[in-house]
Amino acid sequence: MLRKKSSEVLVDLDSVTDLRGTDSYGSIQNGGFVPARYLDDDDDDDPIYIHCERPRLQSPHPRGNYFKDGKTKIDFVLVWEVKTPSQRKRRARGRYQDLARAAPEREADGEGRADRKRAQHQRWRDKFVRNLQSSGLLLETEETVIERKTIHYLKLSAPWEVLVYYAEELCLRAPLQAQPNPDHNTSDRILRKLCVPNVMAETVPSKPVDYYTCAFRRSKMSRFLGSEDRDSYFSSTQRHRIVAEVLARTAYGKRRRAEVGMERLLSEGAYTAAFPLHEGSFELPEYEVPPERLNPRQVLYQYWARWSKWYKYQPVDHIRQYFGEKIAIYFAWLGFYTAWLLPAAAAGTLVFISGIVTMGTNTPAEEICSSRGRYLMCPLCDTCSTWNISDICSMAKLGYLFDHPGTVVFSVFMSLWAVTFLEYWKRKSATLAHHWDCTDFREVEERPRPEFAATAPKMEQNPVTGMKEPYFPEKDRISRILTGSMVIIIMLCVVMIFLVTVIMYRGIVSMMMYHTESAVLRTQVLPPCSEVTPGCGERGRHGVFSALLFAHPVCLRGQAGNIANISGSMVNLALILLMGQLYTALAQQLTKWEMHRTQTQHEDAFTFKVFVFQFVNFYSSPFYVAFFKGRFVGYPGHYGTLFGMRNEDCGPGGCLIELAEQLFIIMVGKQIISNIQEFLIPKVKSWLQKRELAALRGTQIPQEPKRWEEDYELLQCEGLFEEYLEMVLQFGFITIFVAAFPLAPLFALLNNWVEIRLDAQKFVCEYRRPVAERAQSIGVWFHILEALSQLSVIVNAFLIAFTSDFLPRLLYQYRFDRDLHGYVNFTLAEAPASYTHANHTGCRYKAFRDSDGSYTLFYWELLAVRLGFIIVFEHVVFFVLRVIDGVVPDVPESLELQVRRERYLAKQALADNQEVLMVSRGCVSSPASDASPSSVS
Q1: Strand-strand pairing, 844-846 and 634-635
Q2: CA-to-CA distance for 724 and 287, rounded, in angstroms?
Q3: Residue 562 pLDDT
Q4: Rounded to whole angstroms, what are the CA distances from 139 to 31, 68, 202?
Q5: Contact, 514 vs 560, CB < 8 A?
Q6: Peptide bond connecting 527 to the previous residue in cis, omega within 30 degrees of 0
Q7: Residue 410 and residue 346: Cα distance in Å, rounded?
């Protein structure tokens, strides 16, 4: 029975239950909302008043994100799918219900459980929608009927009263006074002062206006700018944030079971999606449109996400206006980091070029190339033969590119660069936080996570809110965390096992290639050499690349080790990527099992687990090559072994060139694979999703899809965790091991130019629009970057001291010869007289040992110099870093003035003394002036 009451309809809930069946809301038509039964164990079954449109003829849908009336804005869309059973399935279900009445015990089969689950979801949806209406939201339904399912869309809109209430509740900022949008681009200001044309600058239309703001107060509404225009007073991101807050607070079941919030409904499967709508298509129409008429999404695509804009500044204000502060701060940090990579890449490239230019002055390499058969080296394995040191001429020259005095200077430069970059980012972050009204942002008391609420065994009173919430005993949580830590340790041990496996793989492959007679190795001999061994040394003097191309088979002994190292690095990269995927999935399950109450605690625990594992996963192999490889080799007659195999020694060019190979393959290989995945996977997923929906639609008459239908076909936004993790690992590569790989910043710069556009296209074109979230900074990732920058100083000091030949050469120059003449002979020890191998005696090996195998006095002097260098290097660098930290303030002085000005205006705007307010604004000239609110300009 229906009764009219102005614009509301009193619904007899029992009389409309058969309008659409148990899986829908009984819509009279798309756009008119008439709810079905509401089953609630806690509340009574009295009829309720709801807003409903009167039945009328179907009108064309208005363009834009509006309800059918063309005026009410759509702030959020909820989606759920209902499978349409075939006629055969309906008959089977009818027979099943007859059998269930006769034999109730058969209800426990799979189909019965599925039916009960669908009914439970329907009850949850019904009560959730009723509570949304009670909270004041406006609702409208749409549905898309296709062959095998019906997709229901519930459109939500927040009216003015709801927006005002939650704006004050969430402490949103309201505008007090407009001001010129500040120029935060340092490079643009510098280029303009130098009168240099800036090709990176570009005018982006519809630039957001900057305001002095203060916390919103409903009672002071008349004192805020634009309060008379209710339709545009709140931005789209503010409206989305408010509706998301309502969805998160609304109950759908019993509160004592924590059956509250949209997130848990999504995790339970009652809804399949919940998202705000994009503001139109990102593609331009066929006809010409003025730039100022483009919608915000088209502006972002045309002036940011396109590949042709790779060299342009990012419109971070537009990104913040459309996606919110959390996503905008990520892109601002990524752009800031990429800009700072420019000087680092230029310095690293100059250091590498200087190594190439000064390669001819490398006296030790020249001595190796001209030695011919003077130095007979000990065999590299138990079944190998002796060899001449001239065979490694080319590798000795190549090793100089990564081990010369310039790399030492560059490592100091990068240590200072890292800390200076972080200091200036703190200033940039503080400026953006104020500009985007997040300076005083603090997380409110967070609600329990949906998964936590669903599985927590107890309910306890929250000491802050006073409400009963799900509770998990702290003692049990600690025991779970400790158990999870043991799992992490086990996984780290697995990484070490894989590292040992790769080490053994390199040794086995190197031996097999040394003994092989395959044509693969012989093809490198172009043209065939004579059988005289010194020929390699002769050709080696002609240059590095000719020595690599025209190598005698004896020379291939060193190349076999290089090929084994390169292939081993590729195998290691494959294992790293595989273990990373497996562990990320494991870390997600472990973090859920640890039962963290809030989303922040959950994310921090997950970030810590994944980063610790990925740090060991990615950096264990470079750490091994840098600090352990070649340290436990022993000497002839007393070689160290691992599982019966001789321990690895550094290659002919030294460990630094091998470390550079490792870094290049792991870092650049990871970047290439990640970029391919980021480019292809979203497109493939989107194509499959659209293809599936197109197949379900079958032979229906094609019609232009609505905005919510198009957005539903997009991918769900996966957050920023993977993006931050990738960049932080890259930061570690370019700072921790930069002494061995000066080209690392250049490869990072090239990758980041691609990364920015890939991420921009994902957010603008491939993803559903995420709910705008506020953020002051990049959060816990900044602390990780700080830890990496401090670690890089220590690692580079040890790398230069113990892995590089910089200090041995420096000490030899001081003690014996400034031009390093005789250095090669000085670094080669004589094998003990007791050592014999295949009737060869008197071979040499690289070490500072005497004829008995004991360390010489020079070794201990060198060790003292190395330790002293580490102490001096660290103290000098850390002292300079502290000076930089003290000289560069975290908050710019100009920003402090703006903050004080804004607080003054906020104090005056919220003051109750109207006359004081007007005098402060200069609106009156005498005490007798009218101080009414209407006279305030």
Answers
A1: unpaired
A2: 39
A3: 63
A4: 9, 11, 41
A5: yes
A6: yes
A7: 11
| Residue 698 Rama label (left phi>0; alpha psi -120 to 50; beta) | left
Amino acid, single-letter form, for residue 507:
G
Q: Answer yes or no: are the C-beta atoms of 312 and 330 closer than 8 Å.
A: no
Give the chain's residues under pLDDT 70: 1-64, 85-111, 147, 183-184, 382-383, 440-447, 450-451, 454, 462, 464-466, 507, 510-562, 564-565, 644, 652-653, 690, 692-703, 837-841, 906, 909-937
DSSP code of residue 285 = P
Q: 641-642 and 149-157 as β-strands: parallel, antiparallel, unpaired?
A: unpaired
The C-alpha torsion from 685 through 686 and 689 to 692, rounded to 10°, is -100
Question: Which pair of structure tokens corresponds to residue 55?
Answer: 């039945």
Can you say how many angstroms the Cα of residue 634 is from the centroid of all Cα atoms in its chain? 44
Output the CA angle 451-116-471, nearest 5 degrees.
25
3-state secondary structure 45-98: CCCCEEECCCCCCCCCCCCCCECCCCCCECCEEEEEEEECCCHHHHHHHHHHHH
Question: What pLDDT is stored for residue 935 in this prediction?
Answer: 32
Q: In whole angstroms, give the CA distance from residue 930 to residue 918.
A: 9
| Helix/strand/coil percentages in the chain, nearest 5 | 55, 10, 35
502 contacts 621 by C-beta, under 8 angstroms: yes
Q: Are 592 and 614 in contact (CB under 8 A)?
A: no
Note the pLDDT of residue 385: 77
Residues 6+ apart with CB under 8 A from 608: none
What tokens were used for 868? 């002293």
Task: Tell me which residue has tokens 């007090």.
Answer: 176
Give the integer Cα–Cα distance in Å for 154 and 170. Answer: 25
- The residue assigned the tokens 């970057």 is 785
- pLDDT (0 to 100) of residue 516: 59
What separation in angstroms does the CA of 610 have from each of 330, 584, 596, 605, 892? Answer: 19, 6, 16, 9, 35
Tell me phi and psi for residue 9, to 5 degrees: -125, 130
- The whole-number pLDDT of residue 297 equals 92
Residue 524: exposed, middle, or buried by beta-carbon count in 10 A (0-12, 13-18, 19+)?
A: middle
Distance between CA 754 and CA 217 in Å, rounded?
Answer: 44
